[in-house]
Design goal:
By secondary structure, the protein is an alpha+beta fold. The chain has 2 domains: 75 residues, Glutaredoxin (3-Layer(aba) Sandwich), CATH 3.40.30; 110 residues, Glutathione S-transferase Yfyf (Class Pi), Chain A, domain 2 (Up-down Bundle), CATH 1.20.1050.10. 56% of the residues lie in helices and 6% in strands. It has 9 helices and 4 strands. Strands 2-1-3-4 form a 4-stranded mixed beta sheet. The longest helix has 29 residues. It binds benzoic acid. The site of benzoic acid has 6 residues, from helix 4.
Length: 203
């Protein structure tokens, strides 16, 4: 399998953490792709028609996307551990937590694109503020959930960690830990895991 990736993407990081935690490193080749909305990679578009990273190219050539489909696929390749409960409330809680973390990352990435890529005279301040309001809403929900994270690891927890990591990477000055100390305390411990240390975004 080949993972089309960019090291700065929090969605890619989530997939990379899955690969490491599931012991699949030998099975996945990494292929770095440079792509933006205004300059889309043809290689990426051949595997994911909406040209978004990450995309996983299977050995039969089929492309899998987006990150949540890829993480579920990777999880299905090993009998244990599994980062998705098979059924019941626990399953929906984990899927919803992963979606929450992805929502945070979407809003944070959108705002970063607005500020970093869009020409200054075309930027829309209220739109960016709205994205950061979504980030704050997600942080609040994650902080409330974090009090019961303990040492658990599942798809939602991995997503939450990658979302916190992206904020530290691209928004080092927002001081999210001040308002969300339970999440901050949990993240301090979780980010010590080998899989998190080895997937840190580029400096
Ligand atoms: C970033 O540079 O922040 C970034 C790059 C690729 C995907 C998402 C975010």
């Amino acid at each position: 399998m080949k993972l089309l990736y960019s090291p700065a993407s929090p969605f890619v990081r989530k997939v990379l953490v899955f690969i490491k935690e599931l012991g699949l490193e030998d099975k996945v080749e990494l292929a770095k792709v440079t792509t933006t909305v205004v300059n889309q990679s043809a290689e990426l578009a051949a595997s994911n028609p909406v040209a978004k990273i990450p995309a996983l190219v299977l050995d039969n050539g089929k492309g899998l996307y987006d990150s949540r489909v890829i993480t579920a696929y990777l999880d299905s390749l090993v009998a244990s551990p599994s980062f998705y409960p098979a059924e019941g409330d626990a399953r929906w809680d984990v899927l919803c937590m992963e979606a929450l973390a992805d929502g945070l990352m979407d809003a944070a990435v959108n705002n970063r694109y607005e500020r970093g890529l869009r020409p200054a005279d075309k930027q829309w301040a209220e739109w960016g503020e709205g994205q950061m309001k979504k980030v704050d809403g997600a942080l609040k929900a994650l902080d409330a959930a974090a009090v019961s994270f303990g040492d658990r690891i599942d798809a939602g927890i991995i997503g939450a960690a990658c979302a916190c990591g992206y904020l530290d990477f691209r928004y080092p000055d927002i001081g999210w830990r001040e308002n969300y100390p339970a999440l901050g305390a949990w993240y301090a411990k979780f980010s010590e895991r080998k899989s998190m240390q080895e997937t840190q975004p580029p400096s």
